[in-house]
């Protein structure tokens, strides 16, 4: 695992020019911040989420800023079928003609509780959103990614996906699975035009973080905008030699 100094990286204004990038969970938090940054440096972003109204707000903000016109692909990952994931990839191909990157940002956190009291419904929903959909989207989109001159897939990890902690249940287990999936896929694609890595954003001022730590002072946390440099770096050719790595968006606290 590597640390990334977010204070040193400067993204060129045309860093992702002519790239088409799918971002899951783009309606809020880190997904929204990264989508706007990708668009700012030239990418056509595909905004995924389950709340169309929120996605339209992100869409409008990108258009009003004068960035490339984005696309919206609403889909509820909890109950989406394999056919719907396949249809998602077909829509991208028919409407945009290419796909150069995926940021798997969507995530679900159930109520923190002991495994003993975790319901099977909670378990399956968290697994469906946090790891099953990552596989299903990636699998459906791999043919498109193979046609890109340089493609990047970024998955979202977590500290509890590296060392398990009590009460984090299916969320922690799903993030361990993300780390494993990233390692397997990146090894399979080594030497190809597709790179696969993971990012642990760390403690960030998001709704999910507030759910997990309701008593925490959110103003002591960095904002989603402040972690975007690593997402820019890993999606671009600046990180062309990086594959199979799990990186931290924030340096560990000393």
Characterise this structure:
By secondary structure, the protein is α/β, with parallel strands linked by helices. The chain has a single domain (2-248), classed as 3-Layer(aba) Sandwich (Rossmann fold), CATH 3.40.50. 40% of the residues lie in helices and 14% in strands. It has 7 helices and 8 strands; from the N terminus they run E-E-H-E-H-E-H-E-H-E-H-E-H-H-E. It has helices at 29-40, 52-64, 82-96, 120-146, 169-188, 207-212, 228-235; strands at 2-3, 20-23, 44-49, 71-74, 101-104, 151-156, 194-200, 246-248. Strands 1-8-7-6-5-2-3-4 form an 8-stranded parallel β-sheet, with helices on both faces. Helix 1 links the parallel strand 2 (20-23) and strand 3 (44-49). The longest helix has 27 residues, at 120-146. The mean pLDDT is 90.
Q: Give the termini distance in whole angstroms.
A: 17 Å
Structural class: alpha/beta
Overall 3D shape: globular
Q: Which fold name is given in CATH as the topology?
A: Rossmann fold
| Mean pLDDT figure | 90
H/I helix tally: 7
Determine the fraction of residues in helical runs and give it as a percent range.
25-40%
Write down the secondary-structure element order.
EEHEHEHEHEHEHHE
Quaternary form:
single chain
Q: Label the CATH architecture.
A: 3-Layer(aba) Sandwich
Largest sheet: 8 strands, parallel
Count every beta strand, where a strand is a DSSP E run of 2 or more residues: 8
Weakly predicted, low-confidence segments: none
Relative strand content = 5-15%
Task: Give the count of structural domains.
Answer: 1
> How large is the radius of gyration?
17 Å
Main sheet: which strands, in order across? 1-8-7-6-5-2-3-4
């Amino acid at each position: 695992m590597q640390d990334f100094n977010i204070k040193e990286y400067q993204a060129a204004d045309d860093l992702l020019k002519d790239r088409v990038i799918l971002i899951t969970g783009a309606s809020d938090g880190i997904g929204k911040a990264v989508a706007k940054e990708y668009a700012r440096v030239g990418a056509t972003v595909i905004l995924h989420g389950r709340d169309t109204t929120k996605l339209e707000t992100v869409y409008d903000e990108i258009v009003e800023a004068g960035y490339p016109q984005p696309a919206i692909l609403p889909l509820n990952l909890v109950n989406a079928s394999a056919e719907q994931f396949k249809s998602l990839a077909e829509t991208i191909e028919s409407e945009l003609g290419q796909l150069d990157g995926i940021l798997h940002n969507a995530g679900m956190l159930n109520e923190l509780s002991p495994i003993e009291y975790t319901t099977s419904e909670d378990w399956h929903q968290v697994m469906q959103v946090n790891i099953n959909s990552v596989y299903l989207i990636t699998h459906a989109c791999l043919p498109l990614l193979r046609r890109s001159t340089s493609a990047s897939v970024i998955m979202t990890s977590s500290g509890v996906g590296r060392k398990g902690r009590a009460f984090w249940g299916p969320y922690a287990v799903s993030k361990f699975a993300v780390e494993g999936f990233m390692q397997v896929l990146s090894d399979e694609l080594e030497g190809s035009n597709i790179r696969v890595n993971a990012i642990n954003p760390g403690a960030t001022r998001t709704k999910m973080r507030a759910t997990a730590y309701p008593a925490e002072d959110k103003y002591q946390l960095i904002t989603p905008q402040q972690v975007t440099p690593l997402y820019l770096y890993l999606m671009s050719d600046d990180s062309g030699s990086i594959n199979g790595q799990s990186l931290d968006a924030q340096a560990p606290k000393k």
